[in-house]
Design goal:
The structure is a homodimer. By secondary structure, chain A is of the alpha/beta class. Helices cover about 40% and strands about 20% of the residues of chain A. Chain A has a seven-stranded parallel sheet, with helices on both faces. In chain A, strand 6, helix 7 and strand 7 form a beta-alpha-beta unit. In chain A, helix 1 runs parallel beside helix 4.
């Protein structure tokens, strides 16, 4: 019975996510859903991304957190409009929460909307929010054995950002194993090794998100 | 309505967790529920703990994972009986899953049962499994701002193991801020800074779990 309840919740969510998706298409907004564990580097990646592309594209950010508005404050410090959604305990954003968050924006004034999900490598992968692409970020400190242990997140994502590669010299992280497993779980996954600290590899990511936004957002 | 469904699920879980708790008391087994994000170091901590105390106490392990039996295999390599629970997508263990896992043990032959939960800093905190104590592990690479952003896990845990302190020289981690926030969220939290890699600080943890087991398990 619990399974049926969960199925109903997912189906109801899908309806609202479709409505969001339609709205984004009408308004010409490209939407990325950024997911990963606590501390994987989601907000730092967002800050770097904003600094790089904010002169060329109009960006909006939705910050999903269980509590506090810290991440939205970090984003707002970059002169970008950020709306905070506090889930009050819930482990993911869903279509309805994002729809509520959209009321804080004039979508005609935005090309790119990035939604930072709650820090969690599991639940956010189950809930569509109307996004064009799911982007996951994981840090090398989380270990090279994660793709097969947490497969859904890897399966539903278009891009995998492997962060904190500046720490590789101090870790036992087998890059070949990690990449092999990730591609076994999702052969279409685009893997980019990055360091938000040193900037290494970020150009690939900037290019990817700018290309997607140009196609969708105009 | 979704909220009422969730409340019913939590109440139903509480009933089963109480039954588990009663069984553990009858059998004189001390039970710890080990929780933390993917890659925080749960399985490595377990391996170190087993190696240290297996001569003096009889240990059993339940491994909760979404998929794969890798962690149970790692534990079994230490000549300890480990039962794998695959949640098949679910983001946490609950009382009923653990009850099923208990069928794999002769509880009369165990003093200490450690349950390694699914890697997730959010959902496992909501579900009691009948444990005596919840123990959380978080690594310094996850950032010093997590207690107030993910408060429930910090609130329900008795012990916080702050792992990977060997990496501190390479990170911007403010130990004072982290400890201050953690204690603000839960003033009773026992914080132990450790490195499973170098062994630093692990003696405190070994002492704590041995003391708890001696009191409950005999």
């Amino acid at each position: 019975m619990e399974i049926r309840v969960v199925k109903n919740i997912l189906e109801a969510n899908e309806v609202i996510a479709s409505q969001n998706r339609k709205l984004f298409a009408e308004k010409g907004v490209y939407v990325a859903n950024l997911m990963g564990s606590p501390g994987a580097g989601k907000t730092t990646l967002l800050e770097k991304t904003i600094e790089h592309i904010k002169g060329r594209m109009r960006i909006g950010v939705i910050e999903g957190d269980i509590a506090t508005s810290r991440d939205a404050e970090r984003i707002a410090a970059h002169a970008i409009h950020a709306v905070q959604i506090n889930t009050g305990g819930a482990c993911h954003l869903d279509g309805n929460m994002v729809r509520g968050g959209l009321e804080g924006f004039d979508l005609d004034q935005i090309d790119l909307l990035i939604v930072e999900n709650v820090g969690n490598l599991v639940c956010p992968a189950e809930f569509m929010i109307g996004e064009h692409n799911k982007v996951m970020i994981i840090s090398v400190t989380e270990g090279d054995d994660k793709p097969e242990k947490y497969p859904l997140m890897f399966q539903v994502s278009s891009v995998l950002l492997l962060n904190k590669i500046d720490l590789l010299p101090y870790l036992d992280f087998d890059m070949k194993r990690f990449q092999g497993e990730a591609l076994k779980v999702n052969p279409k996954l685009k893997i980019m090794a990055i360091s938000c600290k040193t900037g290494e590899g970020l150009d690939n990511w900037f290019r990817w998100i700018e290309e997607r936004t140009s196609k969708k957002g105009s």
